[in-house]
Amino acid sequence: MRAVTARPIEAEAFAPFGTLIHPPAHAGQREMFSAWASPVTGLRPQLHVNRVAPIRLPLTVSQVERHPHAAQIFLPLDAGTYLVVVMPSLDSGAPDVAQAGAWLVPPTLGVAYRPGVWHTSIMALDRESCFSVLMWRGATNDDEMTAVTPMTVIV
User: Fold this and answer.
1) Residue range 3-35, pLDDT digits in tens
2) Is the pTM of this model over 0.90?
3) What range defines the domain where residue 73 resides?
4) Which of 36, 38, 79, 136 could potentially form a cystine with 129 if both were Cys, beta carbons 3.0 to 4.6 Å apart?
């Protein structure tokens, strides 16, 4: 079984899959991420809050999901360190498990996935955690799920 090592997240390494959402450095500053929540014709915005139980590593991943029409944004509301696992698509559109990446994200950062990026669910590591989730929805195939050759995520 293929092993993927989770490492601390870095903006440059994560950039092919999305962006990091970070708080402003100083009081009075504003960081804009509106482009990641841009309207999608025929879809409507959906904002919800997820509560997730913590998982333990190593973890076996055998299913991923993607949202082909819109970015998906996760903002920690009350969270510890969390794990994101992503992978690009092959030319066929299927997930490219051989190019999977796994990152440890501190609770001070949010993440936005590009439309169509294959990923697992958000996974809390330290403790039960809550995330606000924003995306545009309304198409019949907003959520695509698929099984993948199992891989193990380790630290």
Assistant:
1) 999 999 999 999 999 999 999 999 999 999 989
2) yes
3) 2-154
4) 79
